[in-house]
Amino acid sequence: MGLETYRKMRDFRRTPEPKGAVSKTSGRRFVVQEHHASKLHFDFRLEVGGVLKSWSVPRGPSLDPSEKRLAVETEDHPVEYLKFEGLIPEGEYGAGEHMRWDGGTYEVIGEGTAAEQLEAGRLDFALKGEKLKGAFTLVKMKRREGEWLLFKRTDEFAEEGWELRLRKPENGVETIKGKAKGRGQKAKGEIEGGGHTRKFDTAAKGGKAVAVSSALRRKALEGDVSVKVGREVVPLTNLGRVYWPDEGYTKGDLVRYYYEIADYILPYLKDRPLIMKRYPGGIKGPFFHQHDVDEAPSFVRTVPLEVEDGGGHEVDYIVGDNLATLLYMANLGAVERHPWHSRVGDLEHPDWFVFDLDPGEGVAFETICDVAVTTRDVLARVGLDSYPKTSGSRGIHVYVPVEPVYEYGQIAKLAEQLATVVAREQSKVATVERSKRKRGAGMIYVDHMQNARGKSVVAPYSVRPKPGATVSAPLEWKEVERKKLQTADFHIKNMLGRVGREGDLFEPVLKQRQSLEGVFERAQELFNQGAKRRRAQRA
Ligand code: MN
User: Fold this and answer.
1) How many angstroms separate the CA atoms of 177 and 163, rounded?
2) Please, which pLDDT band fits residue 189 given cuts at 50, 70 and 90?
3) How far is the CA of 276 from the centre of ligand 1 (A)?
4) What CATH number was assigned to the domain covering residues 217-339?
5) Which pTM does this prediction carry?
6) Which CATH number does 352-532 carry?
């Protein structure tokens, strides 16, 4: 991956952190750093391929094998960071005291190199540190991008009930205890994970702010400018940076698009936690996921949510439903908007579910349109209306708005049955086979798996980090039936014109809260019928 992201995120005139270089030789060193940033956490880094592969571990590593700790992937760091200790100044990324907590060397256990094992999503390794010793595992969580679990394996160095002792106590807390015993109850003195986003005031830093409407009217946007959005000040930086190199579109173009489309997209983000993926160097550069927001301007709404890692700890999500936040996120390099299917206040009950028709290599868009129409018709047979949009990537999303009274589990099962019926009716071109390898090229995956808690689908009107700066565009069923369209038809340069003519085609998705009364039974019946018919055909 290299160090581009690391460098872009830092101002080396201000931070004492090393600029560093990718090392030509790669040793097998590791370091664990205690980082008193706005939220205390531990940085776990392994030397792989000339850089330090890095994870932010909110509760730190543990020698107790029953303690599985969340480890969130962060940007690669230079090997010079192995020795880094110091104070990152206020206002800089990761501001706060940074100290070495442990370090030493590691060895890979089992087949393959560290890089290969990480690529495959599981690394088994043995640490030789001063505090951490013996076998550990890092394993990537399924369907949770960028999130891993770090835990001790049982061996002679394992220690039940082990407590992590901080080098520097914070708020009187000296140790981080295990969670395994007495789940749900928090031990006394234990560090609470949630609600710790540090909010800062941008008005003070803003200097001379310009009204957003006049600032973004300029044709070529470049440099830095602070814009006034109502009472808020949003600092916009490096607006001339090219984000889409083939088209020459800049970060300024991205910010301007979100400004212009705000009235259309914001209703779909309202009260919903967002999953943030940042492309600080544009769409061809490295990206990283940021679920947990350490610090944000005061106008950014955040919500602490429990992460399902077994540790019961919380991370702060952005709720990106005001204009200032929409622009602030664009400025962070967040190209897409990925809202949850449910809203803060009632997070357990989604108010829409989605079929993602995801084509393999070489599938014609006409065929995707066909499968979308079949999806609509299958839904109509159980009594549900549905609404299509381009994914902005290669496929079509079909949305079904529902009354937010059903659990994610119920919805997921319903979606699975209906997707299976669609795949049966279009068996030559569509499948619900999850394995990419098994479903074969040329097939459309009727993906119903995005309907779980914490999952998301790109919002209508969201930009995609794809050639042409495509946008996920709501469609009329008529257009899908006519089949004379493709993904590339909708992008940041023409979307505003389209909504001017068509209005918001997706509006019913917000308004039509369909009851599932009777729907579950009809779907079950349809699902069984198909299975019966298939058995009869085989007999
Ligand atoms: Mn850190």
Assistant:
1) 5
2) very low
3) 18
4) 3.90.920.10
5) 0.67
6) 3.90.920.10
